[in-house]
Amino acid sequence: MANRPRAFLDANVLRGQLTTDVLLTLAHERLFSPRWSQEVLAEVKRNRPDGVSEAKIDARFDQMNKVFPAAMTSGYERLMPEMQADEKDKHVLAAAVHSKSTVLVTENTKDFDPPSSGSNAMKVERTSAFLNRLLTESPDRVTSAMNKMVDRKREVADVLPEDADRRIVPDGPALFGPDGTRRSEEPRDD
């Protein structure tokens, strides 16, 4: 697919780990090109699930930005006044328009009323509608991507702790020892 659709992901779809994993797995398989903004990531961080530390969410964002360097959208602020959205969500729609996304993926569809034509035209879809559309358009590719995601999770669950980090980051340092305890971050010359 030479011209992948561009999808702006709102904070409420990036909040949950499984939803994020599904979306970014599909993006990694080139079914769409993801976009987000620093404001969206800050909103995810403020509203992160209980038990998820700031450090863990920051590490997730770092990895997302590393894998999808073109996803971070900036420079949209000048568009905010003309956006047809709830005041607190104008930044989301402005970033989606500025990033030239074809769809805004959000669970909060009631707060957005973008025009369907013109320079600020934007389709707004819930995550389920977006995923169903991708599945309808590319059933084999979506199924293959989801099977890879399940296999990846199964592999990590089936390995010893000292091997898990190597499966996740093949060229990275071993972060867990044979007894399952976390090693220090800095490699030591013994």
From TrEMBL:
Compositionally biased spans, kind Basic and acidic residues: 156-169, 180-190
Superkingdom: Bacteria
Start and end residues of each stretch annotated as Disordered: 156-190
InterPro entries: PIN_dom (IPR002716)
The protein's name: PIN domain-containing protein
One GO MF term attached to the UniProt entry: hydrolase activity
Domain PIN, chain residue ranges per copy: 7-110
Alphabetically ordered keywords of this record: Hydrolase, Magnesium, Metal-binding, Nuclease
Ranges in a coiled coil: none
